[in-house]
Amino acid sequence: MQPDSMSAQSMAAAQVAHESMEQAMPMASAHMRMTPSRVATAADSSRAAQEVKVLHAAIAKYGDYRVAEADGYRPFLPNVPQKVYHFTSRTRALLATVHFDPARPTSLLYRKTASGYELVGAMYTAPRSASLEELDRRFPLGISPWHEHTDICIPRRAELFRAVEQRDGKPLFGPAGSITTAAECTAAGGRFFPVLFGWMVHVPINGVRVD
Predict the structure, then answer these.
(1) For the chain, what is the mean pLDDT?
(2) What is the per-residue pLDDT across 51-71, written as a single tens digit (0 to 9) for each?
(3) Are strands 107-113 and 116-126 parallel, antiparallel or unpaired?
(4) pTM
(5) 101, 194, 199, 208: least CB-packed within 10 angstroms?
(6) Residue 60 φ then ψ, to 5°
(7) Are the beta carbons of 48 and 9 closer than 8 angstroms?
């Protein structure tokens, strides 16, 4: 689809999609591998805008996190301080390994508030084995790169309290942790994952950053 064939409404929606995904884009780090950058086409923008529209309509009810929990979304490490909390549905994670549905994200993204949680976005997932072409078919790489978490050390259940332990101003464990090797992880009593989960892409609500 060329720009001159898009309606004014479609162009506006595409612009919103671009701006939202640029703000949501996670930054590459020692624990994150991202797909190569691509130049977005008009077709990418139009498709992303439509998928975002479907997503927003589907998850509006989850503004109340208790509704999300009733539908099977469970918070990941809720007792560990985080900028954004992932409420994940195992059922939808399993479905996402074989089929993409923009109305059924694997995770809902929340920020903690004084009274509970505020919905700020959602996350789609894909298998580790997914090709760049498959990822692009799910959500356009030109709009937002997909990412996967690498070289992650997770504390064992009995040591979850250590997840907030600091070293040189950084937590030891998790996606922002200072531990980057299997040897360090073993020494700290954790479990090392060369790749944790699979491919992911964050989609914000109302332009709120979710990385």
Answers:
(1) 82
(2) 999 999 999 999 999 999 999
(3) antiparallel
(4) 0.76
(5) 194
(6) -55, -40
(7) no
